[in-house]
Amino acid sequence: xxxxxxxxxxxxxxxxxxxxxxxxxxxxxxxxxxxxxxxxxxxxxxxxxxxxxxxxxxxxxxxxxxxxxxxxxxxxxxxxxxxxxxxxxxxxxxxxxxxxxxxxxxxxxxxxxxxxxxxxxxxxxxxxxxxxxxxxxxxxxxxxxxxxxxxxxxxxxxxxxxxxx
Amino acid sequence: xxxxxxxxxxxxxxxxxxxxxxxxxxxxxxxxxxxxxxxxxxxxxxxxxxxxxxxxxxxxxxxxxxxxxxxxxxxxxxxxxxxxxxxxxxxxxxxxxxxxxxxxxxxxxxxxxxxxxxxxxxxxxxxxxxxxxxxxxxxxxxxxxxxxxxxxxxxxxxxxxxxxx
Lengths: 165, 165
Known about the structure:
homodimer, mainly beta, 10 strands, globular
């Protein structure tokens, strides 16, 4: 069962900082078939339903050349998630684990990331497959899938540095 | 050459929104060998130098069970980046492309993502390889690499849904 707002046995809620450190702009909205967190997939699938990513102006101008990439990385804001759990119990069985060892919607900064297949672009709207989030989820960022991207700018010193470990 | 603060020929700077929509807590700090953006790699490499991710309390408690994963996804805040470019010219040659078709540090929400190899954990500090960011970069999130993670919670209806396209 998905968490609505409860703290479960074994979980650890911490005090959130009094002040935030940085600010996010919502640059678009995601449309999916899932209107309740009780229906959302635990993980997106490449053959899942086609979802829409609608960019707000003026950020739609940033879509230029995006059609070159078959897969995109999408970052979105999990706006219904609580943010204060350091330990979580995904099975609600009293066994808790650190938040950073889980891919759940609950994190101090609730940013989900998915790799999606780009199906179609119409104006400021992308159709994609592979998402797992709620209908109406705010969009935070879009990037080419890292495995498809070659930097266009010239390399820098750090690109050639290897470690000794 | 890395952008310091200039807008290059062909680029499009837009007005940023007057108000932000959400807030980020910095949950730690990243230590790398690169103290200037003119040295940072364009992309991290799996055999690159060992870097450190230092978690701030109380978020270090969230590291519990993270040692189970050989690779992690790291989200970080590219704190020196300008945020207002919708079109960018990575080669500074007058040819511009949409921000979302590039993996550069400049985005409306400047959040970098890397997949890193977990080398070692000592208290609240992870040693990892594969980062590309500046020394002192604020940490936003950590998750298991998606290809290594199996949800612990029971599946939901959406997990079985496939599309018709």
